[in-house]
Design goal:
single chain, alpha+beta, nine-stranded mixed beta sheet, six-stranded antiparallel beta barrel, 22% strand
């Protein structure tokens, strides 16, 4: 049963699913669309549903008020507040409470959590309304073109649990939404049409009523009543109202402007237009007419908008070029306004443009924006445009101003990277002008992926005439959601109570008695309770013993803990037997310190680098730990030192680490979504680890009681492991002290070798380095002088082979290869017929050095000789040019034979060349 089948099922019983009291009260009649068969409710008689209507509100709004984007929200929020709804702040656009999504794609996602593979709804206030900013990247091509598409948009979410205090169901929902349109915006009831539909989400679905005015869908009231899928479903324990209305469209319907971008970005547009000096106001009537025609016909031309524009130009009495000259600047300004707003929200909420994950789509729209600015030659600064957005939205989203400087930093870094690569990109683009066949969509994607070349840049350089309509869609689809994590299952465990977790009840427990409930595969023990911490959240498991048998692994499946033991005799462990467990205390303490150190280090990095720093992943074992953070660049030595110093200051302050369990919605409200450093929490009860005054995270791991117990945190290494991610490797506690002592011992050894004290080791090292450089320079001078004299002797000693070549071969195990390279180069300068071969002992390896004079190069190449001799010496081959080549091998026993048979080897090479030639 697919969506259409569900719609048919619900529509077959409209009185049960779709009819509401308002329809009787106001005289809405159920009608059937003659074009598509959909059912809809309207006061006036109609032949077709509003999906086939034109945007007749453009230039003629049906409302009594004219409201821009922000003032529309003020009217809406005031209305819902008066009707007993709690107005809550938006959730982040980076969806960290869902492992399957990068970004918040709808307002209802705010309240959806995944538990045991199933979606549950957690609504913090009942009922509520949220001005949720949402990000979607499946319509990038349509932004600016259609007048209504966005990569970021505000979905006004009207949400409630119908079965909880304060909740209501469909009658009141539709009554409120109708009242909003009629009494607040001033739209007559005769203008409103409700269309029957079905909404299907992740694990839950319901019937819905979409409401339209003059062809424009303004909102969709979903009555989520069922869970499961279309094949197997049941009624939810709590029915959920999920009404989502587009704030951009609600504002647009009141303004009647040519596009929704005019209403949404009004003050931003005005400033941009003034800055670049283009006249749009005088073209308002023309643009209204153009976009009205465009919207009427777009569905028939989605695969070729250029053809539609050509048709519209003819209808308006213009050439295609004349139409584009008017329309294109407006479309481009709309793209720039949309993309910069998307970047502003995403970066403010902690996402970075990159070439992986959700950041991939951010980099796409950022580089597209920069390419468009360059193409039009507009002197607009992205950071300044974002400041305009912040100013416009300050009453709705005051938090944006807090991240203003961080956003500027990231945008500047990304813009500089793009600029620094433009010379290379233009070079590639210009080289493509030679080819008559234009690149395919797949070619364009490959060029963007490998070289960052946007199609806008190719359009600018004349490589392509138009951007394929599905380019950005295909590109965005490459990185739309997280890959699901597959957890291996040992064996299906059912009918058992959850394991009692003693390590949460008392973190000091190391010995305990417990009953064996079940034994799986002969080596996995399930106990009724345990003090063994299982692998999870990046923390490695406890080791120890049960009844003297080693525990080598501990894992958790749902609420059951499994202990892997070294395979004992069959009668050693029996179900229902009481056993004694001992946890390895040294290992537990070490891992515990590393885990607490991870929290400290993560916050130290964020405080030192910027608010965009989030934990990307972490690993905590007994002797080693690592932390991956989101950051735009590799760290400097100064940044590493600052982070380490800050982390150890927190250790020295001996801050208490307080652990409490909260209901998830309360934890999110109290501590914000920063708690999700380690990812989503699959439970309604969230364990919060609070390093008082420093860091708060949702975490299931083990921790020290005070930061001072850690002793010391030492960063061993940092590296940029992928675009946008930096890795720390570090140790703490005794491991850190041992590392410092080891470093100190090595420093002492170096100092003694230099004949200096530890305090003056750097000074002594610098002195020795200078002296060594001087000796090396003198040695090179001597080599050059000595080789000058020897070069003439080499030519004299060279023997003429049967192949006609003059050959000189030598082996040495005392003098370095610098001398023999200098000697060979000078020898062939003196004698152009010479083939020079030197085998030089270099520790365990024999180095092969070959020079061939100018005349001999006409028949034999140095690279071929070096390769053949290297193979004889047990090497893998050599490399170089016709004149000079090197190689080597390890087989010393073949040295004498190589030199003795040099003539035969060269003859063999010549013979082989003649055959191949």
């Amino acid at each position: 049963m697919e969506k259409q089948s569900l719609l048919s099922l619900f529509s077959s019983n409209p009185d049960k699913y779709y009819k509401v009291s308002l329809f009787d009260d106001k005289g809405f009649k159920r009608q059937n669309c003659k074009l598509c068969g959909k059912f809809f409710w309207s006061i006036t008689d109609k032949e077709s549903c509003p999906e086939h209507d034109n945007y007749s509100f453009i230039g003629d709004p049906p409302t009594s008020k004219r409201l821009d984007f922000v003032n529309t929200w003020k009217e809406l929020s005031s209305f819902f507040r008066k009707n007993d709804h709690e107005i809550i702040q938006r959730y982040p656009v980076v969806c960290r409470w869902r492992e399957d999504l990068y970004f918040t794609i709808a307002s209802i996602v705010d309240f959806q959590r995944v538990m045991n593979g199933k979606i549950v709804f957690e609504i913090p206030k009942n009922p509520l309304v949220v001005p949720q900013m949402c990000l979607r990247f499946n319509d990038i091509e349509n932004v600016g073109l259609t007048g209504r598409h966005y990569t970021s948009f505000c979905m006004v979410g009207q949400t409630c649990n119908a079965d909880a205090p304060g909740g209501y169901w469909k009658d009141k929902c539709i009554e409120l939404d109708h009242s909003l349109l009629k009494d607040v915006l001033g739209i007559k009831s005769e203008e409103i049409t409700f269309v029957e539909d079905v909404w299907m989400g992740a694990g839950a679905f319901g019937y819905s009523l979409e409401y339209y005015v003059r062809g424009l869908e303004l909102g969709n009231a979903v009555f989520t009543e069922f869970e499961g899928d279309e094949h197997n479903y049941r009624t939810l324990d709590n029915k959920i109202i999920d009404m989502g209305a587009g704030l951009e469209r609600l504002s647009w319907i009141t303004m009647g402007s040519p596009t929704s971008y005019d209403a949404t970005f009004g003050p931003v547009f005005k400033k941009l237009v003034d800055t670049i000096g283009i006249d749009i106001d005088s073209k308002a009537e023309f643009l209204s007419r153009y976009f009205r025609i465009f919207s009427e016909n777009y569905s028939n031309y989605q695969n070729d908008p250029r053809l539609l524009k050509t048709s519209i130009a003819k209808e308006l009495g213009l050439s295609y070029e004349a139409l584009e000259k008017i329309v294109l600047p407006f479309e481009t300004l709309s793209i720039i306004a949309d993309h910069t707003r998307t970047l502003l929200f995403a970066i403010s909420d902690g996402s970075l443009p990159s070439n992986v994950g959700g950041g991939y789509n951010l980099r796409i729209i950022l580089r597209r924006t920069l390419a468009l600015l360059a193409r039009f030659g507009w002197n607009l600064n992205l950071e300044d445009i974002m400041d305009l957005h912040i100013e416009q939205l300050k009453s709705m989203y005051p938090e944006l101003k807090e991240h203003k400087n961080d956003v500027r930093t990231i945008i500047q870094i990304e813009s500089d990277r793009y600029s620094s690569s433009k010379v290379r990109m233009y070079s590639i683009a210009n080289s493509m002008l030679e080819y008559k066949k234009g690149p395919s969509v797949e070619d364009l994607i490959r060029m963007y992926e490998s070289d960052g070349i946007t199609p806008d840049l190719l359009l600018e350089t004349g490589v392509i005439e138009k951007i394929p309509p599905d380019f950005y869609l295909k590109l965005a689809e490459l990185h739309t959601s997280h890959e699901s994590k597959k957890i291996p299952v040992i064996e299906t465990v059912s009918g058992l109570n959850p394991t009692r977790l003693l390590y949460y009840e008392d973190g000091s427990i190391r010995e305990f008695d417990a009953k064996i409930l079940k034994i799986l595969e002969g080596k996995y023990l399930i106990l009724d309770k345990t003090a063994f911490y299982p692998r999870g959240g990046g923390q490695e498991p406890d080791f120890g013993s049960i009844e003297g048998i080693k525990v080598t692994d501990v894992i958790k499946q749902n609420e059951i803990v499994l202990h892997k033991v070294q395979v004992p005799s069959k009668d050693h462990f029996l179900e229902n037997k009481i056993v004694h467990g001992i946890v390895d205390n040294v290992r537990r303490r070490s891992i515990t310190k590393n885990h607490s150190a991870t929290h400290i280090l993560n916050s130290a990095a964020r405080n030192s680098l910027g608010s965009w720093v989030w934990q990307n992943s972490a690993f905590k074992d007994e002797h080693y730990a690592r932390l991956d953070i989101t950051h735009h660049s590799a760290l400097t030595k100064q940044e590493i030192n600052q982070i380490e110093r800050t982390a150890n200051e927190v250790v020295q302050r001996n801050l208490p680490i307080i652990i409490n369990v909260f209901e998830r919605s309360n934890a999110e409200e109290k501590y914000t979504f920063r708690i999700y450093q380690g990812g989503a929490v699959p439970s309604n009860n969230v364990r919060i680890v609070n390093i008082e005054g420093w860091d708060v995270e949702a975490c299931g791991g083990t921790h020290v009681n005070k930061t001072g117990e850690i002793g010391l945190i030492k960063i061993l290494k940092t590296e940029r492991i992928q675009d946008g991610v930096v890795r720390f490797e570090y140790v703490s506690g005794n491991n850190a002290f041992q590392y410092v002592q080891s470093q100190d011992s090595q420093l002492l050894h170096i100092a003694q070798s230099l004949g200096a004290s530890k305090e003056k080791v750097i000074e002594s090292f610098d002195k020795v380095t200078v002296e060594n450089d001087l000796i090396e320079r003198k040695f090179r001078m001597l080599v050059n002088r000595f080789s000058d004299n020897m070069a003439a002797i080499v030519s004299q000693k060279a023997t003429k082979s049967k192949s006609g070549l003059k050959i000189y071969g030598i082996y040495d195990d005392e003098i370095g290869d610098d001398y023999y390279i200098a000697l060979g180069e000078k020898s062939i300068d003196i004698d152009p017929f010479l083939v020079y071969v030197a085998l030089v002992q270099n520790q365990e390896r024999i180095k092969v050095i070959v020079f061939v004079g100018e005349e001999s190069r006409k028949i034999i190449k140095a690279s071929r000789i070096a390769k053949e001799i290297s193979l004889k010496l047990g090497g893998t081959g050599g490399g170089g040019t016709d004149k000079f080549a090197q190689g080597g091998g390890m087989d010393k026993s073949k040295i004498h034979n190589c030199l003795k048979n040099l003539d035969n080897q060269l003859t063999g090479i010549l013979d082989s060349s003649e055959k191949n030639g």
